[in-house]
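In response to a reviewer's request, we include the raw inputs and outputs for one of the modeled complexes. The two entities were modeled together in a single run.
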Amino acid sequence: MKKIAACIGGGVIGGGWVARFLLHGWGVNVFDPAADAVRKVEEVLANARRSLPALADVAMPEEGKLVFCDSLEAAVSDAQWIQESVPERLDLKHKILAQIQQFCAVNAIIGSSTSGFKPSELQQQSANPGQIMVAHPFNPVYLVPLVELVPSASNTTETVTKAQTLLTAIGMKALLVRKEIDAHIADRLLEAVWREGLWLIKDDIATTAEIDDAIRFGFGLRWAQMGLFETYRIAGGEAGMAHFIGQFGPALAWPWTKLMDVPELTDELVQKIADQSDAQSGMHSIRELERIRDDNLVGIMRVQKDANWGVGEMLKEHDQRLAEQTPSSVQVTDTSLPISTYTGKVFPAWIDYNGHMNEANYLHVMSLATDNFMKIVGADSDYVENGQSYFTVETHIRHIDEIKLSERLEVKTQLIAQGPKKMHLFHSLYHPDSGKLLATGEHLLLHVDLKLGKSCPAGEVVQNKLAVIFAQHCKLPQPEGAGNAIKGPL
Amino acid sequence: MKKIAACIGGGVIGGGWVARFLLHGWGVNVFDPAADAVRKVEEVLANARRSLPALADVAMPEEGKLVFCDSLEAAVSDAQWIQESVPERLDLKHKILAQIQQFCAVNAIIGSSTSGFKPSELQQQSANPGQIMVAHPFNPVYLVPLVELVPSASNTTETVTKAQTLLTAIGMKALLVRKEIDAHIADRLLEAVWREGLWLIKDDIATTAEIDDAIRFGFGLRWAQMGLFETYRIAGGEAGMAHFIGQFGPALAWPWTKLMDVPELTDELVQKIADQSDAQSGMHSIRELERIRDDNLVGIMRVQKDANWGVGEMLKEHDQRLAEQTPSSVQVTDTSLPISTYTGKVFPAWIDYNGHMNEANYLHVMSLATDNFMKIVGADSDYVENGQSYFTVETHIRHIDEIKLSERLEVKTQLIAQGPKKMHLFHSLYHPDSGKLLATGEHLLLHVDLKLGKSCPAGEVVQNKLAVIFAQHCKLPQPEGAGNAIKGPL
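The model returned the following structure tokens for the whole complex.
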């Protein structure tokens, strides 16, 4: 069955949902009667296209088809998932949900992006409440993985599981909120900070810029990777959580927050915040800020991917899912020609001050290709865990053409020589669309026993696989440049 | 004058201060009568030594001398900065501050690590209140840059400026809190979240693990780089802050937090939190969690350094300061021998699954050395901004020995050939202590006009500097391996 999502409302949040579904191969129907809806959705999509694929180390599915619909009926009738992202008014949400249910399939799931309403409130007046749930995402929806999935007693376990599986498949961390509550979990925490922040500004303790610095130079760095409790567990030192609570528990009785009270949002206070925010961020357009934010988010998540921690662990699991869905470069059947060992896109973090891919990332791409070639011949992660691997001893790279942001890349690899203890690879890095050669990498690898720290013959399976490939690759012409030294400049 | 800091209290926070001062070249006197103080400080120091230098791209100063003192008098008498990090009881802080002031220099600055007390409270009973201030840091103190500097009316502007300069010099973001208030700024926000979190646990809405996931998969990722207000400014879309407040302002009147009330910290609630925290994080020791956290923090901050944003902009400024203090590899006077173009330590993020430096980072180090060589010959960032640069066209790396975490590295560079449009460099990567050769990199670079995207002769100054160096380097023997091709494996 063709996967179709309907997005009702195409603002910042609705547009983010559009992008997440579309870039994961879903067809997306948008219904938003606003005059500038198409432009707004396209702008969010442009941001998403340059950043979301940079989280993956495998190929993303082909983009789905985007359709702007003239009626709500046209948008929802063939959709399996319908996401409602209209303004935060319960009467409006009731009206839209009723219209959706009039036209959608009875087994479609309707997710609401509501920040605060409980699912049981949204389900009021509905003849089929079991298909409505809260699916509350976070801006930018195409990058931030969290989505709070909040069912009520009217939703079956089966529907909840189906929703979780589907949201996971589009790269989200579907956090099941087991007990419905106003504002769910994250927004309760955010609301507490927001109210305290408003007091600090109203009382002239700090400006918006000072509050932001107190966050991003301090606890914000911690919270990108561990939350409140794991951070405090460490702060408690060897005695852990109980010690920490013992030490800081008494502060609960102290007047460390103003939150027994709520500041009145006068025109004066709104103006003060807007002025301070202009002074802090006004030198950047919203579009610039979005790109800075997105590049940072990608980098911050990729750091954790390298560490296999938190959001990074999730991204690796998501890569696995994507790899199962899309033809993988590691599933090689034809070895008569150079083997495709890498396909991907140039990440923002790979670009240097000249606007080109930094030279070290040529080798990074080559080493990813080498890792894949190793997997193809059976020297995979299990093999390494069993104590043997290949180490690169020599590398010769030729930078033939410039590589720019978001360019698609493909590496094809020819085995130009091999032996029991060695393999000699020649990677050709292409632009796959034009077929233009961008760089070559010639690499000599030594097979090593990791415990002894010495070279040793590869396992039989690996040696055999290398021999099979080499029997074919040795009939190919030597690649241009193979075996060459660097020539002097004069 | 020799820089001496005294740290009174050597727990998690005190030990973090010790590490930050020591690794920035300060002598540090510690006074902590606890039996295990030496062990605890040494453990924090071990964490700091493996992570803090990974934030810098220039050499850190030589570590200062660490002295554990038998008396408070011995610790503070010759110190210019005294940091008090004793438990959070006002009577105890008054007692310790009085003892410090009995023995310290009148112009020394006394910083208190207090999370909550106002400076005017700490200054009560003091004959010299002007030397006492709040300098509230965040765990881990050796990595998280934020320190809230809170003066009272008793502190002169001169003292405040001196304190800010000093804290900046040890790599901190000294946020001046202009108006004293209980819990300063960051802890007010944290306290609000903490109280809300306790309610969520008490009411069985969420576990510690679920709350942490709601943070680190969601807004925590945003807050590592932008704070509350800049994030919301973007969320408001093109209409910005005022639109956002207009949209979410009404929620202030809704019951989205429990913070009008404070949960009672019963034994039962403490046990519940401790049990949930064990289930969430108990598979890792505190030491493991610390290292995971520190590696992530380094990575998250380095991402922003690449983007020259927030904490990363600060780190770059700090590099500048460090470079001015320590002999820079770029200030070259003797060019008769290969030139030292890089000194540094192996970062955690450079280590692969085998526990060795990843092959791409050999080239990364080589390219940092090339950047420095370019600066030495006058092809610096101004030169690039004026539209010309060198691009690497060919690279030959030999991986001679394994490189492990935290190893010190040095690159020496020989100019083996040059011409108006080209330079041919040979980098030798050494372990500077043992003199062991770890890798070599041979690189051919082409001088280009960035606007035309074509090669062109270098500027006269650059050509002359290259000629001067080459006149000496051409008399040196060709480095072993220069000009070689990769030999086949059989």
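As requested, we also summarize the result in words. The first strand of chain B starts at residue 4 and ends at 8. Chain B has a mean pLDDT of 87.
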